[in-house]
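dumping the sequnces here before i forget
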Amino acid sequence: FPGLADVSISEDIPVEGEITVPVGSRSPDEDYSTLDEPVKDTIMRDLKAVGKKFIHVMYPKKSSTLLRDWDLWGPLVLCVSLALMLQGGSADSKDDGGPQFAEVFVIIWFGAVVITLNSKLLGGTISFFQSLCVLGYCILPLTMAMLVCRLVLLAGSGTVSFIIRLIIVVAMFGWSTLASTAFLADSQPPNRKALVVYPIFLFYFVISWMILTFTPQ
Amino acid sequence: LSPVFCLFAEFDDAANLLAANPDATTISIDEPVEIPKNQHGRLQEPGREEDDELLGTDDSDKTELLAGQKKSAPFWTFEYYQTFFDVDTYQVLDRIKGSVFPVPGKNFVRLYIRSNPDLYGPFWICATLVFTIAVSGNLSNFFIHLGRPTYHYVPEFRKVSIAATTIYAYAWLVPLALWGFLMWRNSKVMNIVSYSFLEIVCVYGYSLFIYIPTAILWIIPQKVVRWVLMIFSLCLSGSVLVMTFWPAVRDDNRRIALATVGTVVLLHALLAVGCLAYFFDAPELDFPAPIIPAHNGTTVITKSH
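..and the predicted 3d for all of it:
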C-alpha cells in the first residue's frame, strides 16, 4: 500500500495532554454513596420501588422497568403473609390438615425456581432473578384473594360463602396468570410459549387450591 | 452411469446372500447406511420390515452420530441440559397424542422421539399427575362424605408429598432399573434395538399422561366406573410400553423377554391400583348419595355406626 508508507509516528512530535477523563465537579463515588443519607430515605426508596411494582402487577402492561430493577422484597413479604394467613386452618396439628408454614414457603419458592429453570432451559432470555421477581410479585392478587376469603369465612362457612370464595379465587387466579404471562411471554422463543406458560398456570393453580380449601377450625 | 450400476450390483449380491441364509446376522460398520436398512428389513418379520423402513434404521451409526453431535457440551455446563429441552410445543403435543392413541405396530420411541428425548414432558406430566391425583382424591372424598353430619372437610395436604415421592420415584427409578437390565442383556445377546436411558425415561413419562384424565374422572364415586377407567387407561399406556420394549427383548430368551414385558406392565398396574386405593376412598355402598331424602339418610347413618 504505497499511500500508507509514510504513516508513522516520528519521534520528533511531542506527545502531550491530560490523561484524566473530565467528569465534572463531583466524583462518581458521591453519586452512588448512600451512606450519608438518613435511614428513612433508604427505606422509603425501597418501599417505593416495591409499591411501584405492586401497582404494575395490578395493572399489567408491558413494562421493562419491572424486569430491569428486580427485587425480592415484595415476593418475600407476599409469601410470608400468604403462609401466615394459611395457618390456623383446620386440624393444624393432625396429619390431614392444610399446608404448614414451611410447606407454603417451599412450594412458592421451589416452584418459582423450577419454573424459572424451565423457561431458561427452553431458551428464554430472561435472567434468573428477574423471573423469580415477576413470579413472586404476581402472587399479589392471590394474597388479596386469601385476605378476602378469610373475611368471608368470618361471616360464615356455608355454601354461599363457598361460592363467593370460589368466584374470587378463580378471578384472582386468572389475574395472576395473565399478569405473569404479560411480563414473561416476550422473553420466550415464539414456538415454545405454551410450554413456558403451562407450568406458570400449574403453579398458580396449586396456590389457588391451597387458598380455596382453607377451612377454619 | 456405471458407478450406479456397480452399486446396484452390490445390493443384489447382498440380497442374494441373505435370501440364501435369512437367519444370518449381519453387522455392517463400514458400509453406507442404506444397506444395513435393507438387511435388517429382511431379518425381521414382514410386518416389522415396513415399520423399520418407514422409520429409518434402528440404532445404527446414524443415530449414534446424531446423538454424538447433539450432546457435545460438557455435563457441567448449562448448554448440556438445554439439549434435553430442545422441543417445540407441537412436538410435545404430538408425543402426548402418540402416547394416548397408540398405533399398533408403531414404536413410540422411533416414531416420536427420534433421538431427541426431552425431559420437559416427563417432568411436567409427572408434576401435573401428582397434583391432579391429590386434588381429585380430595374432591372425591369430599363428595363421598358430604352427607355425613359429622364430616369435617380436611385438605389432606400430606398426601401431596406422598404422591410426589411415589410418582417421581416410579418415573425415574423404574426406567433406571429397566435400562440397567437391558444393558446387561445387551452384553449377553446381540439385540437389534436398544434404548438410551433418556429415551426410556421419556417413554415412561409420556405414558403416564393418560392417568391425568383418568384421575379426574375417578372423582365419580362409582366403583364399577373407576375400575373400568383404570383398566382402559392401563391398556392404553401399557400397550405403549409393551410396543416400545418388546422389540428390545424379543431376540432374547423367550422366557426372559416375557418376564421383562410382564414386569413392566405389572409395575404400571401396581402404580394405578395403589393410587386409586390410597388417594380415593372407597364409595361406601350402604351410604346414601345426598339426593336421597332425609329420613332414609338418618336411618342409614345409625346403621353405619
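The mean pLDDT of chain A is 82.
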